[in-house]
Amino acid sequence: MIGTNLISICSMKPSPRMLISCKNSSSFLARCHPTTPRAMSNNLSSTNNIRMLGFARIMNGNHRAFRLPSSRYFSHLTSRPQTFRSPAATRINGDVTTATVNELGLKPRKSSANDKKNLEIEKVYIKTDNGIDEKQLVVEKSADKESELEAGGEEDNPRSENKVSEGVAAPIINNNGEEETDVEREAWKLLQEALVTYCDTPVGTVAANDSSEESLNYDQVFIRDFIPSALAFLLKGENEIVKNFLLHTLQLQSWEKTVDCYSPGQGLMPASFKVKTMQVDEEKVEEVLDPDFGESAIGRVAPVDSGLWWIILLRAYGKLTGDYSLQERVDVQTGLEMILNLCLTDGFDMFPSLLVTDGSCMIDRRMGIHGHPLEIQALFYSALRSAREMVKVDDGSKNLVREINNRLSALSFHIREYYWLDMKKMNEIYRYKTEEYSLDATNKFNIYPEQIPLWLMDWVPQEGGYLIGNLQPAHMDFRFFMLGNLWSIVSSLGTPKQNKSILNLIEAKWDDLVGHMPLKICYPALESEEWRIITGSDPKNTPWSYHNGGSWPTLLWQFTLACIKMGRTELAEDAVALAEKRLPVDSWPEYYDTRTGKFIGKQARLYQTWTLAGFLASKMFLKNPETAAMLCWEEDLEILETCACALSKSGRAKCSRDAAKSQILV
Ligand code: GLC
């Protein structure tokens, strides 16, 4: 298959497309990034660390290991002194170091009526073969539990039925002296089994290890799927695999990519890659990395989120290991700039948000998320904030730095102002006048109030709100998309008040958004005519299944980050407890179906890696909340100060900066 692919592509393009083999990887790097002047002047010739002299950053002080956030965001953490061991601490000088942090500690969990319930504890049998790592877990489902899952309609109340923090066997101490439940141990074992090696080094994890289904591309390493695996590894101090992943995907970025005689933009990161073996000659077989930039993907969707995740992971690597030399490398800096240039290129766009085609992110099928979907905007914002901490400031990059700052400022204003929805805003929309032609129109996007869907009127609670899914001329997508909202909290794309309101809404709408399994990818599902028109009658995305209102346990880690940041740890604990009870029994599915996430998804893969890695990362964040804090961003007044527009000078219209600044005081 691969050979055919190669030949057909080569025949269309004069320059040969080569697969990266372990042998030629350094020479490949030497020919990387041909059009980037800074790369040329640096004349890369190896993958060795190249230290930059006079390295300055846009933001000062963001790169210190142990530098913990002092923001009011974390003031909810108690002042009880606590000793913790961070992965960064473990790494420095190879010694185990401990740090005392006064402002950290967990908010005590709120007790609720459900906590007092006498919940069934599953029987867990552990068979030991060769010591602790070889333990196998067999979970026996009780008859009561089976019937509980099978019986009951959609109308039952999962929040009260399924709060099951006590439903998991008591933890035991692992080799590192940390508490670990049997479920966690099983997940670690499965994560190890998902490892993909390239020339004998681990470089990623497969999407799923489900031998019962045709693998399609689930045997590949997906960039977005690897993020929770990477975090779990980093939090455990296993850093090499993440470094390998970052460097190998960097090489793939410069791939010569072709979709039917057209080459997508330079800097694009693949959606996934696979390690393949190639017959070099009669005797020799070589391993090669074969990326997919969407040219093989179902629907030929563009992996816009891959580069954004790569940048976010690069920052996380530095934060959690304390090793900033990776992001300082010239090849890494060049790759970073290439992604940024691709995202920041001017087009016909009128908005600061990124314009993308349908299915360009986690939802990689047609689901009506073309245009300016929230998920992409939240990841874009996070990637820009990450880049702002990592881009080396010099003469060659100063324009890029300016662009990053301007874009951050404009994007944050745009999303906070136009994507926000609560009761007050809904009432404004309800009374909108339309067809306003002027610079200071109230209804700037000409939204017809009739667009407000009936379900929405009663759904939004008084104390909550959320960022809508998409905004286009005369179109607001009122669906609630989980990843975009969670990531807006984590990155402070939303104002502090908005972020708080989003979690309030999730809590108030727990049955809809968590139900039997955290968390809904989007709410509500598209049904009937809407499903037919918007998904194109997609049989995989039927109402309340898969991307169309299915429940995805992988979203747990992002929820946990958001909850810890906002001082709502108890919400994450409840969600993790739900997942811990069901995931091992159900063989770690990719997603769940039905309105409340009651059934394993119709076509869900089992042993889905980001399900189990997301669970592990969540558990680790809850055990060491300071690590979660390292990955979040605080409100940054500098972003609100920056003003790219010249409006105030021209006197033509009022600059929006004042409005942006005033918002955070609310
Ligand atoms: C599905 C998901 C996508 C994921 C891939 C591999 O296509 O929609 O987000 O990356 O599976 O798990």
Describe the structure.
The structure is a single chain. With 666 residues, the protein is of the alpha+beta class. It has one domain (182-648): Glycosyltransferase (Alpha/alpha barrel), CATH 1.50.10. The strands form nine sheets. It has a four-stranded antiparallel sheet with strand order 1-12-11-10. Strands 2-3 form a two-stranded antiparallel sheet. The chain has a two-stranded antiparallel sheet with strand order 4-5. Strand 4 and strand 5 form a beta hairpin. Helix 7 (182-193) packs across helix 23 (609-623), helix 8 packs parallel to helix 23 (609-623) and helix 13 (374-390) packs antiparallel against helix 14 (398-418). The longest helix has 21 residues, at 398-418. The relative contact order is 0.12. Bound molecules: alpha-D-glucopyranose (GLC).
Radius of gyration: 25 Å
Strand content: 5-15%
Please report the first level of CATH classification, the CATH class: Mainly Alpha
Distance N to C terminus = 59 Å
Unique ligands: alpha-D-glucopyranose
Please tell me the overall pLDDT. 78
Layout: helices, strands, pairs:
Blueprint: H1 2-12, E1 20-21, H2 25-30, H3 37-42, E2 82-84, H4 87-91, E3 99-101, E4 123-127, E5 136-140, H5 143-150, H6 158-161, E6 172-173, E7 179-180, H7 182-193, E8 195-198, E9 201-205, E10 221-222, H8 223-235, H9 240-253, E11 272-279, E12 285-292, H10 304-321, H11 325-328, H12 330-344, H13 374-390, H14 398-418, E13 420-421, H15 423-430, H16 454-459, E14 466-467, E15 470-472, E16 475-477, E17 480-481, H17 482-491, H18 496-508, H19 510-513, E18 522-523, H20 528-535, H21 556-565, H22 569-582, E19 592-593, E20 599-600, H23 609-623, H24 625-631, H25 637-641, H26 647-650, H27 657-665
Antiparallel strand pairs: 1-12, 2-3, 4-5, 6-7, 8-9, 10-11, 11-12, 13-14, 15-16, 17-18, 19-20
Helix pairs in contact: 7-23, 8-10, 8-23, 9-10, 10-13, 12-13, 12-14, 13-14, 13-17, 17-18, 17-21, 21-22, 21-23, 21-24, 22-23, 23-24
Bound molecules: alpha-D-glucopyranose (GLC).
Alpha-D-glucopyranose (GLC) binds next to helix 8.
Family: Belongs to the glycosyl hydrolase 100 family.
InterPro entries: 6-hairpin_glycosidase_sf (IPR008928), 6hp_glycosidase-like_sf (IPR012341), Glyco_hydro_100 (IPR024746)
GO molecular function: endo-alpha-N-acetylgalactosaminidase activity; sucrose alpha-glucosidase activity
